[in-house]
């Protein structure tokens, strides 16, 4: 074989590998390799980690993973009773943690005026902060053209501007002390377009823009920025989702489905990404993962395939049913 033929064969094998292998994964290939060969989660032992949106779902289960790794935790959300239950379970999963190692801090992240006070409380309590996990946020189900612009603004206030405002306070501190880690919970909706979630998809794309800009602007190896992108995860997100009307929630219970990752598995993989300082990772059932690879690396082919599949297919992949009927 000539040199160019060898290069051609290697190229074909490479692309076939990336086309086929993701069908057997629940995260991108890089993260999958790090789970086996990278730094273990236990390396985070002793880190002070602040998790926003910690009262349920991914944030709740990430707290349990980090508690097992002997991290000191600050749990923030608006609901005090739920946070107290999360703290109780953190202490149960790791009896070696002291009550003082897990701090419940009730916080409305959309109240930007409270951010500095909350950050100051964290430093007063633990003397330092090592990791901020920006996990607060809500999803959406609505037809794009029917969305009240006030919904877009309210959703962006929660999913984007509140996270950016808090991160600016924390990043300034990280620069002052010379180290730290920002973790941002985005979504596969931040990587490709998702039907019937226009405002939500826009908000997640905005997060990528803000934090990728920060990463390139600073290029600070001592302050990594990790953007984690889950697909469909078994959490109670659907009942709290935004709709097309201001103040109205979607209000449906999320059904269990094989196409959704468990919160526990998703949280474990996020912890793997954290400890290995991954820039960006995708975490999802193999179908969603393959669709994301297709959209990112084969956009022309993806355009044809997505049209053939239709928007109903994407609703079943995400919600296991049609949540918004098209007209």
Automatic annotation (TrEMBL):
This chain's source organism reads Fopius arisanus
Name one molecular function that GO assigns to this entry.
oxidoreductase activity
* Membrane-spanning residues: 6-25
**Secreted in keyword set:** no
Domain of life, per lineage: Eukaryota
Q: Name the InterPro entries on file.
A: NAD(P)-bd_dom_sf (IPR036291), Sc_DH/Rdtase_CS (IPR020904), SDR_fam (IPR002347), SDR_family_member_7 (IPR053011)
Name by which UniProt lists this protein: DHRS7_0 protein
Alphabetically list the UniProt keywords: Membrane, Oxidoreductase, Transmembrane, Transmembrane helix
Sequence similarity: Belongs to the short-chain dehydrogenases/reductases (SDR) family.
What Gene3D superfamilies does its record include? Answer: NAD(P)-binding Rossmann-like Domain
PROSITE patterns assigned: ADH_SHORT (PS00061)
UniProt-listed Pfam families: adh_short
């Amino acid at each position: 074989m000539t040199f160019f033929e060898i290069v051609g064969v290697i190229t074909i094998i490479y692309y076939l590998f990336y086309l086929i292998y993701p069908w057997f994964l629940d995260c991108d290939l890089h993260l999958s390799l790090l789970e086996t060969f990278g730094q273990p989660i236990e390396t985070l032992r002793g880190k002070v980690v602040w998790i926003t949106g910690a009262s349920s779902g991914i944030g709740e289960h990430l707290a349990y993973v980090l508690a097992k790794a002997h991290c000191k935790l600050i749990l923030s959300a608006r609901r005090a009773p739920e946070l107290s239950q999360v703290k109780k379970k953190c202490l149960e999963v790791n009896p070696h943690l002291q009550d003082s190692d897990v701090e419940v801090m009730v916080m409305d992240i959309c109240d930007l005026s409270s951010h500095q006070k909350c950050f100051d409380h964290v430093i007063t309590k633990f003397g330092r902060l090592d990791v901020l996990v920006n996990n607060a946020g809500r999803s959406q189900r609505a037809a794009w053209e029917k969305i009240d612009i006030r919904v877009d603004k309210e959703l962006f206030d929660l999913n984007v501007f509140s996270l950016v405002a808090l991160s600016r306070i924390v990043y300034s501190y990280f620069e002052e002390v010379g180290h730290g880690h920002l973790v941002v919970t985005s979504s596969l909706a931040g990587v490709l377009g998702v039907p019937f979630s226009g405002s939500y998809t826009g908000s997640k794309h905005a997060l990528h823009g803000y934090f990728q800009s920060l990463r390139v602007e600073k290029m600070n190896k001592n302050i990594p920025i990790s953007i984690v992108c889950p697909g469909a995860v078994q959490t109670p997100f659907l009942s709290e989702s935004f709709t097309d009307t201001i103040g109205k929630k979607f209000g449906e219970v999320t059904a269990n489905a094989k196409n959704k990752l468990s919160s526990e598995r998703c949280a474990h993989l996020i912890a793997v990404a954290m400890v290995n300082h991954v820039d960006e990772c995708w975490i999802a059932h193999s179908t969603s993962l393959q669709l994301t690879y297709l959209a990112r690396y084969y956009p022309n082919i993806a355009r044809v395939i997505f049209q053939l599949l239709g928007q109903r297919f994407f609703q079943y992949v995400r919600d296991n049913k049609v949540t918004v009927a098209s007209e």
